[in-house]
Write a structure and sequence with these properties.
It is a single chain. 41% of the residues lie in helices and 15% in strands. Strands 1-3-4-5-6 form a 5-stranded antiparallel sheet. The radius of gyration is 16 Å and the shape is globular. With 184 residues, it is of the alpha+beta class.
Amino acid sequence: MPLTPEVLTANSEVVAWLGSLDVSFTPDEEPWFTIDGVENPRQIGSDGSGGAFVLLPSQNVLYVSSEGRAGMIAENFEAFVQLIVARPYWLDILKFSAGGDLQEMRRAADALEATLDDEDEINEAREEIRGALGLPDADDPIGALCEAVAASEAIVRATDGSPFTTLFNRFSVDSNPMLRNAAA
C-alpha cells in the first residue's frame, strides 16, 4: 500500500515522532498563498518556521516558506517522508546550497549532520518512523531534493499577487563559521 497522508496520520505514534523532526500534519486554517493553476491547494502539514507542505495534483510535494520562497521538494509523498526522516535539516541544506550546487548541498548536509545537538533523539526517531511505516532508506535524498527544486515549475504567490522565489539560497557552507568548521 502506498504511503499517503491519510495512512501516515492514522498512525499517531509516527506523527509524534515526525513532530520531533519539526513536522506537523495539521494544515493551516486559512490559505496565505495561491498556486497558479491549482484551484484548491491541498496543504498536508507545516513546519515550525511557519512553512506549508502542499500535495499537488501531480502528487509532487511543494514547500511554501513563510519568508516568500517556494518549490517542489519531493516527487511524491513517500519521497517527502523519506527526505524529512533522512535529512530533517533539509531546509538548511537549501539555505547553504550556493544557488543549487549539488556538491555544496552534500557538503552542507555532512556539516549539518555533524552539528546535530540531539543526534540520539533524531536517530531514534528515524528508526521508529522507518520501522513503523516499513519505509526504506532514501537512496540519495540530497540529489532528489536538488533535482526536485531545480525542476520546480509551480508558481506560488502571496495574497498580494507577488511571486515567491526559489528555495535555493546563495549561501555556502563557508558562509557559516560553525558549518565551515564542521565540514573541515
